[in-house]
Design a protein that fits this description.
alpha/beta, globular, two-stranded parallel sheet, binds zinc ion, six-stranded parallel beta sheet
């Protein structure tokens, strides 16, 4: 095992094709991965990529997909809380992933606190999408997607402060609010970040410096495959001059420590 990719998308529609090929791509690269479910039904009416689908991927390809992220639509209220519990307890998924731009909510909105309370109770991590998204990009009005929901301060920072026992992973370098994300990770020991969604070639200097320095135990490898293909992310990361021990931490050691993944 060369790396643990904590952020990959098998698709966002129900029953996406090509799972066998996806598994083969990861196997070929000696990388294990955590696929992510998807539920934005309230906003779009689209059937979710179900948590059961992710659980099935893990069951069918246990050597490649070692765990996965559940997704629930927070607007479903108590049903969302129950589904989060079922996904972790019964399906065995690792934790919860939110895409607030697609799901149209602020993480610090008190109406959704029962979800984070449930995650504390379950002892499971939550991943929040941070910064701009490829979803709706280049369309008039961004396809109706609002970026405000993905800003780190105050929306994520509030949750991190209110739930000190909750392990939080901010997904992506959080551009154009990268410094806010770095500030939270430095300030709050229960917050971590994944480096997915951008080629490491384009990481700003401040991010590279922190990953090589004081955040070397806090940053996790995620690709956002297929949006940033796995192979491209890995190849670009190797060329950026990170210290060898930092590369090992980012690629898998931090995921083992922070998320308790045993591989
Ligand atoms: Zn993603």
């Amino acid at each position: 095992m060369r790396a643990i990719d904590i952020h990959l998308h098998p698709g966002i529609t129900p029953d996406p094709p090509g799972i066998k090929e996806l598994a083969e791509t990861y196997r070929r690269n000696d990388v294990v991965g955590l696929p992510i479910a998807w539920d934005e039904e309230t906003r779009t009416g689209r059937q979710p990529l179900a948590n059961d689908f992710i659980a099935r991927m893990i069951k069918e390809y246990p050597d490649v997909f070692i765990s996965g992220w559940a997704c629930v639509d927070p607007w479903k209220g108590q049903a969302a809380v129950r589904e989060a519990e079922r996904a972790v307890k019964e399906l065995g998924l690792l934790g919860l992933k939110s895409q607030q731009a697609a799901q149209q909510f602020f993480p610090n909105d008190r109406r959704f606190y029962p979800l984070w309370e449930k995650c504390v109770e379950l002892g499971c991590p939550v991943m929040f999408h941070m910064g701009t998204t490829g979803y709706g990009v280049g369309q008039p009005g961004g396809g109706g997607i609002r970026l405000k929901y993905t800003r780190p301060i105050p929306y994520l920072d509030d949750v991190a402060a209110d739930f000190p026992q909750l392990t939080i992973v901010g997904a992506h370098p959080a551009w154009p609010w990268q410094d806010e994300m770095l500030a939270i990770v430095i300030h709050k020991s229960n917050v971590f970040m994944d480096l997915s969604g951008w080629s490491p070639k384009y990481f700003p200097e401040a991010l590279k410096r922190e990953v090589n320095g004081r955040l070397q135990d806090r940053a996790l490898f995620g690709s956002d495959h297929p949006f940033i293909p796995l192979e491209r992310w890995l190849a670009d990361f190797q060329k950026e001059g990170y210290k060898p021990e930092v590369i090992e931490k980012v690629l898998y050691k931090n995921a083992q420590t922070i998320l308790g993944l045993e591989v």
